[in-house]
Amino acid sequence: MSSRDRDWDGVRLHVVTGKGGTGKTTVAASLALALAAEGGKVLLVEVEGRQGIAPLFGCPPLPYEERGVAVASGGGTVHALAVDAEAALLEYLEMFYGLRRAGEALRRFGAVDFATAIAPGVRDVLLTGKATEAVRRRSGPGRGARRGGRSPLVYDAVVLDAPPTGRVARFLNATAEVAGLARVGPVRNHADQVMEVIRSPETVVHFVTLLEEMPVQECLDGIAEVRGVGLNVGGILVNMVRPPLLEPAVLAAAAEGAVDVGALARGLEAAGLPGHERLARELSGEVVEHARHMRMEAGARDRLAGAGRPCYDVAFLDGGVDLAGLHRLAGSLRDQGAV
Questions:
Q1: pLDDT tens for residues 146-156?
Q2: How many domains does the chain have?
Q3: Which of 198, 217, 291, 318 is deepest in the core (most CB within 10 A)?
Q4: Where does the secretion signal sit in this chain (predicted)?
């Protein structure tokens, strides 16, 4: 597939959100591997303190530093970072004010937790700020820089495993609120730099959902909310997709309760299974249930299509999620043109 067929060329910050339980961290990890294919270098960032990334890659818990966790197809690499708001604040105080010692004292007295508790927006600014800094970061002078030009970017892309859908718009827009409070100075400059990245065409918010009523509704509500605060909506990633087990005509009839129990019984008898008539009756119920579930999923897909965004299927992994499974999902995302 040529680069023209990729849906998100030019995007460097991929924010991934979804209702709790939809598997957004798994999808974010797969997306990072897909982006790193063909030699890319990608940073995968988590901000909720759950240490959800490390188990997927078979790694120990991540510290507050960027570490390589996987090699993608084609030789690209995925690095991961678990952002801690307290450590990010200490880093911020050192970077802009030279106050790391003062920050350590604040930490010992519990002032950091107090400040982020009474002003939750501050915590969100620190978390998003770390991700956007990685988007802008360039290698040191003289390291790969062209004569008269700037050094190359350290990462080709950053994937942010963001908070759930119900909170993501406020999380990403917190910096704009903080910027309104700080008219001048380093805090305002920092906020402006973060929002410049968050609101740029290089950033999109992807939504992970299941083909179920509540996740689909929350996905659609989240898309409307993110659009409402002026952020860019990316794609919809439908997770844990299972293929239909029957032909469309059979599914349509079964969804209406029409199953040829006699044909099932004859097939079971020919296979030499005992109690074939009883098994056929039980199996017909399973067929009807499966067909109605597939019809419900088709309706959910129609609702998602109404959002007008590209949709991608992320397959259900029968053997559980491991690194090999992530590579399979990454390959599928690339095949669908997601990255």
A1: 555 679 999 99
A2: 2
A3: 198
A4: none
